[in-house]
Each structure stands twice: as structure tokens, then as C-alpha cells.
Specification:
It is built from two helices and six strands, in the order E-H-E-H-E-E-E-E. By secondary structure, it is of the alpha+beta class. It starts with a strand and ends in a 12-residue tail after the last strand.
Length: 96
């Protein structure tokens, strides 16, 4: 069984959406919206109204060292914005 939800995004922009009932998660790149919705409902016991997904490509990065120039890319990932029903709440901070 593959893991669909990797982690919750905790940041200023994501926290600002919590008042509107929107929560942000990093998800598996191959997961679709229906799988994400079912997984959120199963784990957190909330009713999901909608799921929007975004795919991010890795950014090119270059590091200059004394002997060499190292170049590569950061990891690509997929983010899901999940809107839950009014009155439902997901505790992404783990406060209990």
C-alpha cells in the first residue's frame, strides 16, 4: 500500500488558509484527487468538499566550492489544497 499523504505544510501562507477551512499537504506525485480525498477523510475523520492539486518542478541549484562547481536540482513534488466542510477541523500541529 502506497503512502498518499507525505506531510502537512506548515507555513504562514498555509496557516492563513486554515481560517477558511483549507489545509495544505505534500502528497505522492502519482496520487489523484479522489485518492487524496479518501485518505484525508479516513485519517482525520472530516468531510472533504474539494481538492485542488499543484505540481512543482525542481528548481536548478548551483553550489560553488573551492575545487568544483556542483549543479543539480531540488526535488519535484505535488501539493494538495484540501477544503473541508464548515465546522470540521484538522489538527496539523499535533496539539491533540
Amino acid at each position: 500500500m502506497k503512502t498518499i499523504l507525505k506531510k502537512a505544510v506548515i507555513g504562514e501562507k498555509a496557516a492563513g488558509l486554515h481560517d477558511k477551512g483549507i489545509y495544505t499537504f505534500i502528497v505522492d506525485k502519482k496520487a489523484n484527487k479522489v485518492e487524496i480525498k479518501n485518505e484525508i477523510e479516513r485519517i482525520y475523520g472530516v468531510t472533504v468538499e474539494s481538492v485542488n492539486t499543484l505540481r512543482y518542478g525542481g528548481k536548478p541549484k548551483v553550489r560553488y566550492t573551492k575545487t568544483n562547481v556542483l549543479s543539480g536540482r531540488t526535488q519535484a513534488y505535488k501539493k494538495a489544497l484540501v477544503r473541508v466542510a464548515e465546522g470540521d477541523f484538522i489538527d496539523v500541529y499535533g496539539n491533540g
